[in-house]
Amino acid sequence: MGKKSQNYYLIALRALLNFLAERDIRTLPSSKIKLAKQRGDETISFLEVRDIEKMLDVPDIKTPSGLRDRAIMELLFSSGMRISELVALNADQLSFLSDKSTSRTYELSIVGKGKYVRTIFVSPRAARWLRAHIDSRRDMEKPLFINRRTKDPESKRLSPRYIQTMISKYAMLAGLSKKVTPHTLRHTYATDLLAHGADLRSVQELLGHKNVATTQIYTHVTNKRLRDIHEKFHGGKELSDK
Fold first, then answer.
1. How many domains does the structure of the chain reveal?
2. Which of 177, 158, 196, 198 is CA-nearest to residue 75?
3. Is 82 among the catalytic positions?
4. What CATH number is attached to the domain comprising 118?
5. Does residue 3 fall inside a structural domain?
6. Is residue 186 among the annotated active site residues?
7. Does the annotation mark 8 as catalytic?
8. Which among 82, 133, 157, 187 is annotated as catalytic?
9. pTM across the whole model
10. Which of 3, 9, 104, 113 is flagged as catalytic?
11. Which of 74, 104, 175, 201 is deepest in the core (most CB within 10 A)?
């Protein structure tokens, strides 16, 4: 069991101990229950939107593989999908792209972590690149994103490892100094939403987090927004000496 899962149980145990204490039932103080420390609790890795744009400009979109890679990164940043969710997509799930609308945001139901069905959103821009990728295909393979280098039908679906390597490569070619993974794009997606005013509960739904506690890793954004609000509406006002 991972530390995050352990902490869910420990938090529940704390709540039970508090419940008992409120009823004067002698038990272990809840303060004695210490949560397991998780790596990365303090900070998360995310990019500025301008860095995302640099990465998106790297693939050679004149080639089928480059067009596919651009579509993958556009979809990851548009939807905040997990890499496991992305590689599981099939081409027929995006049949709605036959609608050539250039200004519509599309909804797509996917099966996420824990077999939980959730809705993701595909921006008009991402839809445009996905449509271009699909139109460039000259095969009848089921996966949305395929490995063009193999002839083995069992290995046609792109692997998470391939996408991880691909994104790392494009980040390096874009001149980014930090390590970039598919999850970095997911973090950037959530950070961008919060920075533009989305509330934590909405971001929880968009990311497919079962518990809002998981989404609270993004407090680096919400804390800054709260500070800005305080400075704008309260902190800058001086009390008069009366």
1. 1
2. 158
3. yes
4. 1.10.443.10
5. no
6. yes
7. no
8. 82
9. 0.75
10. 113
11. 74
